[in-house]
Structure formats: C-alpha cells, structure tokens
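LOG
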Amino acid sequence: MAFTELYRSSVQTWEADGMGHMNVQFYSEKATSALAALSIALGHGPERVRTSGTRLVAADHHIRFLREQRPGAPLFIRGGVVSATAERLTCYFEMVGTVSNEVAASFVTEVALFKDGTRETLSLPQNLLDRIDPLKVEVPPHGQPRGLTLEAPRPAPALADTESMGLITTFQGEVMPDWCDATGHLATRRYMGIVSDSIPNLLAQTRGDDRSQDSKTGGAALEYRFIYRTAPQLGDVLTLRSGLKEVTTKTYTWVHWLFDVETGTCVATAEAVAIALDLVARKAIPIPDEMAERLKSFVVPGLGV
C-alpha cells in the first residue's frame, strides 16, 4: 500500500483560532484540496469538471484530530481510495507534519459525484472506477473511529422539533460570498466553520463561560462526524441547534443540527467529541465535577447524526 501525496503547505496565522492552533474548519479545507488533487488522478480533474459540470464532493466526513497544529507548521496530506461502489467512493487522507512525520489528523471521506447546478447525485463513470486500483489504500488504526460510532445516518431531523427537544440555538446567519465554493454553494469547510463559530455561544449558554475573558483554559475537538445533507447557496440564512449527547470525566460529545431558516430543511448533522484544554501546558484536563454536573443537565436522549 502506497499513499499518494495530494497537498503540501503550512498553517497560516489567520487560520489559528482563540486556542492558538489551526481551527478545525481549515483541516476540512485542506482535505477538500486533497480531494481535488485525487480527482485528477481519477481522471475527473478541473478540465473534466468544467466540461461535464460535475465534481467529486464529500458527502460524509469522519475526522480525527491527533495533534494540534500551530501557525507556521509545515504539513502535507497523503491518501487514496479505500473502496468504491457505483454511487460512492470511500477515501482516506491523513495530514502529516513535514518535519516530525507524525500524523496530525485523519479523514475518512464518503465521496459522491454531484451535478453543479442542481446538486443531483450521479453514478460514478466507469472510466473513473477503472483508475482506482493504483490508488487503493487501507485505513490505518489511527484513522479508525475511537470516541464515535460510525452508524448509518439518522433520518433528517426537522427544525420544528428542536425546541421541544431542548436543543440550544448556537448560531444564525446568512451565507456570505466568501463562504461559497466555485458553484455558489456553501463550501465544505464552512459547514465546520459554522459549528466552530457557534462554540463560544454554546459554552456561554451551557457553562456560563466567556472565552474572551479566560486565556488559560479552552477546548479542543478530538473527533468529528459530519453528514452533508443539502448545499445552501449564497444569501440563504442558516441556524444551528446544538445539544449534548454524552458527558464523561474527560470528554463531552456534542451533536449539532444545521437548518435553512426559511424552509426548515436540514442542511447537515454533526457529532463531535471534545476535551477541556490547558492552554498553558497544551494538555487535556479533566472536566471539573461541578462543570460536569451542569453539562449533564443539557444531555438530550436520542441525539445523533
């Protein structure tokens, strides 16, 4: 098994968040760039995208964050195709530190072929499937799920049901031009960006925290599952509803449901395992008992992606 190098760059200062490390949305952005390079190897690169009006897009992401990346860190992404059906590819990517050669993050990505204008899902062409064998890889142990169970996605939830379930409104806003990809739809990284932007509001409403007033403690995601259900367009107004699935002594698992405000359509569902982080020592810390008890009051039975 030989991985193909698909991306090489570094962490930019503006990609760092209040925790001082690369924000989760930029992991997604770099993995999306890696998928674009893999698409070339599969014979469906930019020229084919332009002539056919179709492109390979992530439909389901499982991401593990193994080592934080600070501004200036050089990195690259390697990967390949794990398996294929007539409708989807399963791809594996891993982000690696150029100097340390340590894996910083892993991505198992379910990829579908979409029509640009309608976002209709199409069958994969045979000429693309014929190119897979030289790109075949296996998911290594560090890319396997640990804190999450990769079950089949739940039916799309309804916005009208979230209030009675006790979910919290953690984000609402318009899809801006710089959030969109070349087709005018919400870019893959911005789904994650919306969830990331929601976290300070989430913590304020569940723990009474104001991150702008505490520079010594924070949080970090260990693992994410994202199901991309529809593709919002420029000007759409989106709202995020969030709730806790589980709290342990060391981790808490959040579930986020993203909706179109006007139509009530579910745009995406996500699940994330997170830890509390000592920003001075750069180490995970146990969840204090008082905080854990408060968080448990926000646990909503039956949540999931």
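LOG (cont.) second protein
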Amino acid sequence: MLIHPDRLFPAEPGARQIARRLYERVRKLPIISPHGHTQAEWFARNEPFPDPAKLFVQPDHYIYRMLYSQGVLLEDLEIGQSEPKDSRRVWRIFASHYYLFRGTPTRLWLDFAFQELFGLQDRLSEETADLYFDTISAKLGTAEFLPRALYQRFNLEVLATTDSPLDGLADHRAIRESNWKARILPTFRPDPVVDPEFGGFAENVAKLGGTTKEDTSAWSGYLKALGQTRLRFRELGCTATDHGHPTARTADLSMAEAAKLFDRVLAGDADAQQQELFRAQMLTEMARMSLEDGLVMQIHPGSVRNHNRKLYERYGRDVGADIPAATNYVEALRPLLDRFGNERDLTIILFTLDESTYSRELAPLAGHYPCLRLGPPWWFHDSPEGMRRFRERATETAGFYNTVGFNDDTRAFLSIPGRHDVARRVDCAFLARLVAEHRLDEDEAMELAHDLSYGLVKEAYKL
C-alpha cells in the first residue's frame, strides 16, 4: 500500500479518532476546483491522454524543477518539445529519481493517483518504472480514463481553467454545445494585456482592440475593450478574474494621469517604476470592473517570474524557475481599499507566497474589510505544513469564514483529487485538535469541515 488511511491525522489517539469522524463527513463531497491551469481542450475533444510522461512529468513544474535541481537536464525530460521522442526514457529518468520527493506534497499527490486511480501498490522506483509505465499506458487507452470520464470519476462539480483575454474560448464553447452536463468554466487572466513586461504587450493590446472593435490605442477604448472581454467570458460561465502581478501594489490615478501613463507604457517608453505603477492602476481598474460586473477578483502576487534567465530564454515562461519574494499588503492595497474596501458586493481574494504576512497583514486586513477574503496556501506552501501554518496564523484574527476553502491551482489534472484530499485531511486534523483542546464543540467542527471543503468555495466564487 502506497498511502496510509490515517495519513496526516494527529498522532495522539483521541484527536485522531475525532479527525477520522470529521473526515468521514467530507470525504465524498464533490470537488470544487475554482482556479487551475487544466486545458478546456481536453474536455472539448475528449481524446485519450498520450502517455504517463506527458501526463505526469512534462506539464508539472513541481516535478521537473526538483529533478533539475539535482542535475537532470530539461532536454532529457523533453520539456518544451511538442512531440516526445522517447516517453519511456523520460519516465525511467523520473522513476529513478522518485526518492527526491520523499516528504514532499508532490509525493502525497502522486502516490494517491498511482494507488487510487491505477491500482499500483509497489513504490515507484527504477525497478518498477516499466511496470508503472505499462500499467498506466494501458489504462489511459480505455474509455474509463478519457478526460470526461475522469471528470465524473473525480466527483468534480466545477472545474475552472485560466484563460488569456486574447483566447477565443472555442473549446469552452464546444463543451457547451456538446450538451455534456459538466461545469468547465473559464477564468479571466488579463496579464498579457495589463502587464507591460509581458512579451508582446503592445501587440497584445492591439489584438485586443481587433477582437473587440475598440480603439485600444486610447485609454478609454482600452478600458472598454477589457470590459467587453470580461462580458464575453461571463457569457461562458466565468465567475472570477485572476491577476499574477509581481507585487500587490495598487494605485488610484486620475483619468488624465492614467491616460498619460498608458500612452507611455504602450509606446514602450516607460521605465520599471512606471511599469509597476501601471500594473498597480490596473488592479484598481479591475476592482472597479468587478464591482460593476460581479466577477470575483483573485490577486496572486509575490512571485519573481523566470528567475533563471538562461532557462527563460531557451524555454519561455512558466518553466519552474519562479521564486517567492517578500510582499507588502498593508500599504500596497491602501489605494484600492480607500476606494472600494467597504463595498460588500465586491469580493477580492488575496493569496501570498510570503508566509510572514499571514498574522501581521493578511488576517487583520481580511478580518476587517468586507471585500477581502484570504485564499488558501498556494504554490510553494500548498503542503500539509503550509496549510497548518496558515490555519494557525490566520484563524485567530480572520476566523474561518473570511477564508475561501481550497483550490488546487494545478496543471496536473490527475493530481486534483489527491490535492483536495490532502487539504480536507489537514483541515480535519486542525479542527480535531480544537475539539480535543475543548476550544470547539464537535458539532461545530462538523459544520466547519463541510464549509472548508465545500461551502465556502461555492459562496466565495459565486458557484
């Protein structure tokens, strides 16, 4: 057996028994996945996943960044190649280095998928690599492992993708037109047209104008084009936006100041400080639009993107070389909050890669401003220890109900059930400790376990 039935539960027997009871309450609840990076194309086409390497290894930066740190070349993993040449060889490299993931959340997610989905009981290693590859490959060729079948098997109720404003959303339309009864929703991610440092920014803004028939060379036309695009996303079920900015800085410039800054940014004449000011202004503009159209706003700041310049130049964005940075929220969000912080009809979900802000900044902010909620531990902190630290540091000020449950934020589709299972177990363990310490009655813990697993995420994301 790869995974123990009591994994992540308290070691103390009494608290463990409480955690078991709480977990039974939530174990089979449907999964709400309100933010992630799976592809709508998978479900529109409903074709078999190609092979284990392409399914597990090549799309998952958690995996290949660890392998790269130990000297495995990305070329050997065939990262960035449209057509793998030798997937079995890639898988054998992964399997021979599987020991590197001991004690990591990646190991928990993978072992869950290997055992629960594919029935594999022996640990992955160099010796079992071919057994795994052949077993997984054979099952991927069956109807039970087609994307739509897995969606049903995972008990997914909602699955949100992350989409560029330049995306025509044809795959989302195809899913709807197929009459398949599933909720695959787009999420509006405007980074390509609001971040001056995004490759091809000016060309992207021009394309936005072409698709919306607005004059995006002017500030007013640019804002109208963004509003139109948000409406197009909403028509296909979108309930949220997502903003991956380097910082949480916001600004509230006058129309004239914003227009002048936009002209400079679009012309490519803005320095780094002006580019950051433009991103800051755009967060406030997005909050204004969310108040108007009802889309929930997610802010994912604090990642220094593409830190490894050599890898970025060779492979492009999102190749596992992003590093967390210290992030300020109290002063950074003040301009936006001065304008919209007291709006009860606006929801802004804050994420962080800087754990030092949990009790000092984020929990007090979310524990006061009606528009703010705290997103779950994300990315580098999407781990049992990270989830425990979040609950311990945020709950005392923000409580549970200023948080939004869990989201997996993953490209690795088959990891979704395992990730949600980890989150549910950790929350049940935390609640069990409160019950065992007589800080919470068990009936309250039962309600909270349900809310943290299912209720809060549906409410926060308007699902």
